Amino acid sequence: MIAAWCRVTLWMLRILNGISYHLEGLDNLPNGPAVLLSKHQSAWETLAFPALLPRPLCFVFKRELVFIPFFGWTLGMLKMVQIDRRKGHSAFASMLRQGRARLAEGAWVIMFPEGTRTPVGTRGQYKVGGAHFAVSAGVPVIPIAHNAGYVWPRNSFIKYPGVVTVSIGKPIQTTGRTPAEVNAEVETWIETEMLRLAPMAPRS
Description:
This protein has 204 residues and is an alpha/beta fold. The chain has helices at 2-17, 44-52, 71-77, 89-104, 129-137, 179-197, and strands spanning 19-24, 35-38, 57-62, 81-83, 108-111, 141-146, 162-168. It has 6 helices and 7 strands, in the order αββαβαβαβαββα.
């Protein structure tokens, strides 16, 4: 139902706002468990990925969101991974337990390593949590870059017509590697790809 609602929203964005999309690298997605680590510029990708990717997605989010009326209550009923940041180191053990369960059910775990939406043309700090989870779970990482911030800027009600290009990179193996090494490779690939996808001047 959620994926269907996301597809309807993408259709409305195309009809009402002239926003379409183009996917590159779909053949890089594995036929098995994986952690997706994506650039985060807009609200567009949170709506689009569940609709466009071929497996159910399990987002990782902070537990405080479940207390938001209606939105949070619905989020809490979905099979996502909740993090209670007040629990410190034990929060990662809980995330790993929940994430492994979702992977075993056939879902992909998806995270935004920058943690929050970044303005077009900028780079946030890539946190190592997603890579740490992938190394601990023994699954590959799939890096994803996109230029959605040009059509739906961060914290902006105004949307602009255009084509969002989503580029999916080749799997990054985690076996025998440290989270820091994996995270650095993810950041390098995504930010290099962003230079190709987003050569335009930032929206004001």
